[in-house]
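Write out the 3D structure for:
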Amino acid sequence: MGNTKTRLINALKGIEVDRPPFIGPGGMMNMATTEILKTHNLSWPQVHEDAAQMAWLAARVSELSGIDNIGIPFCMTLEAEALGAAIDMGSIHSEPKVAGYPLHRLTDWRELKSLDLNQGRIAVMIQAVQELQNQDKPVVVSLTGPLSLAASLLEPMIFFKSMRSEPTEVNAFLSFLSASLIEFARELAEAGADILTVADPSASGEILGPRYFAEFAVPYLNQIMEEADKCYSASLLHICGQLNSIFKEVGQLSSLAFSIDSATSVKALQEAVPGKVLIGNVSTHLLHRADPEKVKKAARLNLTQGVKVLAPACGISMSTPLPNLQAMAAAVREWPLSASLKQELSTDDL
């Protein structure tokens, strides 16, 4: 196992490392920007449907951006498409997104079949992982969390309202989706993936609140992450938005490594839920709009506050300038800071 792999795996497990890793896990936090695609004359449809190109681009993104991993896929629509959602495959300027829901009412989920791992873009992703074996950098695969997947199959307002009116049916639906995701995760591990990311932006405390987060997010996320511990070297969980209202419930999540949005304070979460390995949380607005020096200062501030693995706070804009990603890479490679830079951060208004 190369040093880069060891560093990231150990950091995600809370083991001291020589410097913080900088990651782009793929999926929702894809780093294949418009600039990179244009440079190599690539577009989303062709990359998503060709395992060799997917593997090559993931490795190239890692090389150009400076991230310490190779991350795939490049969107969070694979599972929804495999379960019947219509997908707009995007363009050089936009990632794929759900364009049509296959379910019209909650109980329609019972007509769904489990994910077919042998066809479509899911099979392409598995093959791409196989092609990425024996890399010096760890291969990170990203799956869509069960709540976000449910909200990609059924109009979100119908789904979330059903938590109040049909909780038993919602739990049955989420149980089905979680079982399918676990099978997918196992197959990716068998193909050679090192680390699993589960991104569940719809599990935000702002959307669910404490009661529904505890009932509909915690059990299924824990089930998936506990299964991941059996077949991956390490894993991490990402949840978007402001988490202050659900700090207690976040403490019930089994995942040690936890990726957070810039809307959540690193210090506040550390105080409320000690022991988590925090990942993030450089503002994606800053990454999109600021200059590289300001991005580097923001990254340094995050690390000073206690982030153990540096990453964007959420999914980045495809128009994010490559130098801003490289600035984050520079921040971890220049760590730890000198005393004068620490003082500068303590007084600088980012």
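The chain has one domain: 3-347.
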